[in-house]
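Review the following:
>
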Amino acid sequence: VKLATLAPEGTDWHGMLIEMGQEWKKTTKGTVQLRIYPGGVLGDERDMVRKMRIGQIHAAGITTEGLSEIAPDFSGFFVPLAFQTSEDVHTVMAALLPNLEQKLESNGFKLLCLGNMGWAYWFSTKQIKTPDDLKKMKIFSWAGDYKWEQVWKNSGYNPIALASTDILPGFQTGLINTLSTMPLYALAQQIFGIANHMLD
């Protein structure tokens, strides 16, 4: 089984996939072996979905960004500040999950498991205190997610569409200066060294 993920090599996320592969191999007495492609080496999440569709890979560890490529309704889960508590997220997910799984399956995909990677925070090269401060920034936007890019623009923000593998180079060159992500991802990708302001 070939599995792709953006999880950087050597992180806990990557380690959990390795452990899963070892368990599969042990349980099937070596019949099933998992080959992991970490760190976005096979492309962004939208690339991973396309590669699953044509059979180049069999599985992917993806976020709601990749899931929304298959079933657009998943995009509601990455609206900034839409949820105030973990209970909010769990309540909405419990209500919507059966319908979301059905949409995935009608498109030829099966949701094997769903996890929580934590809350996303704004990481930026300059301090952000207000929405107007954020409007002056160059915000990372997923390449290929034209709907959300347009939402940002219509709201007066400045989205810059990039592949996730271009986030760090984007910060290094000044192409972007703001990103909404989880602290562990910012640490694993060394983003925190450049985007050293975190808005809670």
The helical segments are 12-27, 45-53, 64-70, 86-106, 131-135, 146-154, 167-173, 183-188. DSSP finds eight helices and eight strands in the chain. The longest strand covers residues 138-142. The mean pLDDT is 92.
